[in-house]
Amino acid sequence: MKLRVHLIQLRMSNDYVIELPSALVLVDAGSPGDTQKILSRLNAFRGKPLRLIYITHAHLDHYGAAASIQRVTNAPLMIHAEDAGAMSKGETHLGQVRGRGRLTAALMPLVKRLFPVEPVTADHVIQDGQDLQDFGLPGYVLHTPGHTPGSTSLIVDGRLAFVGDLFNTFGVPHSQRLYANDWSEIEKSLERLKALDLEWLYPGHGRRPLSGAEFASLISTQR
Q1: Which residue of 17, 79, 102, 121 is most buried, as measured by CB atoms within 10 A?
Q2: What is the pLDDT of residue 174?
Q3: What's the CA dihedral at 157, 10, 44, 117 to 10 degrees?
Q4: Handedness of CA 115, 121, 125, 131 (dihedral sign)
């Protein structure tokens, strides 16, 4: 199937639009206040409806505008079972914090007051290996926990992966090193992705995707 990937670079994170022949899929839904920018980008694809909103994990910079986008588009929303509860309560759990992530953790109460998150309930609670063909998407769910218990990567067309916050490409590409529910699970999740021999991997933060070769190099340097 012919498809194209479009980056929406937001204040705090990246969203992606997967453009299919007759529909769109939105990967992540930004932060509170990002609604208009996201909708503007979606509206640029005239005549193509939003078929699905896929949330990689329940942090406010990845699902913060989901409720408002869903009200406008009526697109179904999905997230992994282990993160669905946090999203339905408007919560963000940072887990164990390292390095400069401690500053963000200290500021989180202020961030939540300045950018209140509207709770939203998933229409579809997904599991590892779940096929998404019913949504017109040639892809499936890969459970890649560590950052959060229910973090997932969306694998599309057997060659593309949308990985949430497993790694980012600000500066020298590096794996998640600030927040984790379980640090040991992050390494295992990276290895799961590496085993797929992917062509391109799209992070939730950073200026660009990683090629499969770059990702393999990133993994090898962290061993």
Answers
A1: 79
A2: 76
A3: 90
A4: negative
Summary mean pLDDT of the chain: 93
Estimate the share of the chain in helix, then strand, then coil, as percent rounded to the nearest 5. 30, 25, 45
Nearest C-alpha neighbor of 25 from the set 2, 57, 58, 48: 48
Q: For the domain that residue 140 is a member of, what is the CATH number?
A: 3.60.15.10
For residues 162 and 45, the answer to whether their CB atoms sit within 8 Å is: no
CB atoms within 10 A of CB 210: 22
At 147, give phi and psi (nearest 5°).
-65, -50
pLDDT score, position 135 = 93
pLDDT at 110 over 80: yes
The alpha helices in 44-139, defined as continuous H runs, are 60-63, 66-73, 81-88, 101-114
Task: Tell me the pLDDT tens digit for each residue of 6-58.
Answer: 999 999 999 999 999 999 999 999 999 999 999 999 999 988 999 999 999 99
Domain that holds residue 202: 4-113+120-221
Among 82, 195, 199, 197, smallest CA distance to 147 is for 82
Contact indicator for 79, 150 with CB cutoff of 8 Å: yes
